[in-house]
Amino acid sequence: MYRISSHLLWIVMTATIYLSCFLPSRAHAVQYMGLKEAIKYFLPQGSKVSKVDKTIPKDKLKVIEERFRLRSTDDFKETLPAGPYTFYIGRDASGKASIYIVILEQYWRTCYHKYAIGIEPSGKIKEVIVVELNCRFAYPINRKSFLKQFAKKSAAPGKRVPVEVGHDVDAISGASVSSEVTAIVTRRALALYELFFASAS
To answer: Distance from CA of residue 178 to its chain's centroid?
Structure first.
């Protein structure tokens, strides 16, 4: 029978505590809806949906991050990876796009947030919905009274993108960080829409 040294046991226990406390976990996540349900939520009746994957060109990354005030801090990694990003496009009977849907995730320390964002062809946010959360302190952001603040937000050319907590959106007391996460994800969605689809709408 093998014996485990006290030193090795200490290393294993320390690593286990670190992983459980400081890395995001989805073990106890609350899933409010599945992917198909989230996409269907945004689709007008009779619409067909197509799926497209997009990747941000390297020369566009810095420009889009600056315009949408996406930056990395000690608390958040707001910047955009190159992708690919999957968009689900709802189209009417004539084939014209009626809604652009993107699913985005954000981690913050041990918290995991997942959203579905619908964007109208005009470039305005139709709605932001919470798909999944794993942190009980974040649950209050799934209130209609909070999420409705993001509806109709858009990115007007040459102007500040109006989706910032404290300026355009009121945070929820006790869930201020998750309120900020929601704003970050919404700005990301607007950035991706502008980059990939604005000129075609």
So the answer is: 11
